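Fold this sequence, please.
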Amino acid sequence: MIIGSHVSLSAPNYLLAAFEEAHHYQANACMIYTGAPQNTKRIDVSRLKINEAIAYGNEHDLSIEHVVIHAPYIINLANTINEQTFELGVDFLRQELKRVSQIGAKILVLHPGAHVKQGEDAGLQQIIKGLDLAMEGMDPSIHIALETMAGKGSELGYRFEQLAYIMEHCKYNAQLGICMDTCHLHDAGYDVANFDAVLNEFDDAIGMNRLCCIHVNDSKNSRGARKDRHANIGFGEIGFAALKEIVHHPALKDVIKILETPYVDGHAPYRLEIEMLKSGIFDQDLIEKIKEEK
């Protein structure tokens, strides 16, 4: 099982510290932002201690190729009403792709974007335009993984058909993939408890070979609520049984799985949640144990 969680990229050790945090969680994968997801401030890649992190990973079963990088939330390629916002998104996505290449990772997860009340068709066309501009000349070993979204507000990508449309019409189709999010799928109306059916629908619309990674999250919402509120594993509306089946699914053996579940009273839940998912045994006392985690 290739499984990990979101980890911090914090000074002074940056990527090395991220790898150490992942190892503490007994993970063999992780996800990082290259800076704060709400702004464009970034330090030079040369300061991230990449070589030190790779050396540490070689000793602790954590490959740089199992590092997923998440693009910042401020990128909105679907925006047709503010040219500056669109251009900022294109320029910053182009910069992030270079940083992914310099770090040595292979997957950049991207929220497709929100059409800002201009209509889904206009938003989809703008996303395609933005991707074509940003991906020109990018490292061919990297994939942008478009994330399945919950459908809150005017965000796009909450149906497989929308993501398929973007991929089919993008100039750089071969370098696009998908990041599934279990909470988002559930909130968008997919029956995550019947995941074989979800995978069959995904395969028909997009193709299983395009699945780059999965965000494994429970949901605080009823199915189809289109709200996007993550819950801890087994303590939401999806439930432990369904999420356990997903992480142990034989068709997903080589797919990177990343937890983005909420902290509990300031405590990271990931070590205990990963341990529970690996064992396949639900722990009703998990929340109390997370509160006590050092």
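The chain has ten helices and ten strands. The longest helix spans residues 83-103.
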